[in-house]
Amino acid sequence: MTGLAVDGDSAPTAVGQSQATATATAASIRLDDIRCAYGGVQAVNGVSFEVPAGAFIGLIGPNGAGKTTLLDCISGFNRGYSGHVYLGGQDISRWAPHKIASKSLVRTFQTPRLFRGMTVMSNLMTAPPRQIGETIRGAIFGSWKDEEQKNLVHAREVAASFSLQRVLDNYCSELSGGQERIAELARTLMADCKAILLDEPFAGVSPANRVRLAEHLVRLWQELGVTIIMVEHRLEWIEQLCSSVQVMANGRILASGTMNELRKDRQVLEAYLGAAP
Ligand SMILES: Nc1ncnc2c1ncn2[C@@H]1O[C@H](COP(=O)(O)OP(=O)(O)OP(=O)(O)O)[C@@H](O)[C@H]1O
Ligand SMILES: [Mg+2]
Questions:
Q1: Residue 33 Cα to chain centre, angstroms
Q2: Residues 6+ apart with CB under 8 A from 135
Q3: Which atom of ligand 1 lies at the shortest distance from residue 66's CA?
Q4: Of 63, 77, 107, 230, which is best to mutate to test ligand 1, by the most ligand atoms within 8 angstroms of its C-beta?
Q5: How confident is the model over 12-23, as pLDDT tens digits?
């Protein structure tokens, strides 16, 4: 697995060598024999692994390996699978996405799913779950005003921590690829989270913004102490950020280990790069 140059980026200090220190809020994720098919295509074919609370792991593999489908199953966006998903020991298999999000497992998408016709601020405000105005009691007694005020303050704080203050009133359609990714991450974090699934967060992001995005991810992981599974084709970022890596091919886990170990794994080289050393 050569050619893992950092693509002109100056990557942040490697952090994935040890667990995050603040793991009080993190939740482990355990997958037990996940299988999911689309018609005749067996996209995920018996995947089992465990991510300890507070770990930052990578999920890599060639196009069509089943990575996104696996994230869809974990987050409830695909419920047509067999097997079990546990979050912090609780069985969340086949729960609806909003119910899983309310348990503090959140995700981003391969293509950012922001409301492009709304401002960044409005997008951030769509995120907090259980807004009081959504309940009849809250609507009648007006407590939603306090809640909305709190959410506004929280949105400004989140935006500031992601350096998004200058674009808060911009429409999301006006953002660059990198800003979109960062705004999506910020929106995700408006909800309390214990675990985050990231699907190709560096795709479409300029080299300068990739460094910023990586710094945000490191900060999230270290300061919030969340558990992270990151799917990414840019292996230099997997290497910089992740303590261990699962390799998927044809719906199965082919190997796992550090990038150093995987570089020497003939099966991985053949399946992932299509060539033996
Ligand atoms: N909605 C769908 N309907 C039918 N087949 C699908 C659907 N989504 C994915 N597939 C198929 O399932 C398999 C796994 O796809 P998936 O998108 O999970 O792979 P991936 O590892 O995320 O690939 P990539 O790296 O290109 O994003 C592929 O063969 C794909 O064509
Ligand atoms: Mg994918």
A1: 21
A2: none
A3: 18
A4: 63
A5: 433 433 344 444
Ligand 1 pocket check for 65: Cβ under 6 Å: yes
**Pairwise CA distance, residues 47 & 253, whole Å:** 6
Indicate whether residue 43 lines ligand 1 (CB < 6 A). yes
Cα–Cα distance, 195 to 42 (Å, whole number): 26
CA–CA separation, 271 and 213 (whole Å) = 29
pTM of the model: 0.85
For 159, the enclosing helix (H) or strand (E) is helix 144-161
pLDDT on residue 71:
98
pLDDT number for residue 251 = 97
Hey, CA dihedral for 260, 24, 190, 96, is it positive or negative?
positive
Ligand that lies nearest to the alpha carbon of residue 60, given by its number in the listed order: 1
| Residue 273 token pair | 């790069």
For atom 27 of ligand 1, the residue with the nearest CA is 63
Ion ligand 2, residues whose Cβ is below 5 A away:
68, 110
Retrieve residue 29's tokens. Answer: 């994720």
Q: CB under 8 Å to 207, separation ≥6 — which residues?
A: 7, 8, 9
For ligand 1, whether the C-beta of 63 sits within 6 Å is yes
- Alpha-carbon gap, residue 62 to 76, rounded angstroms: 23
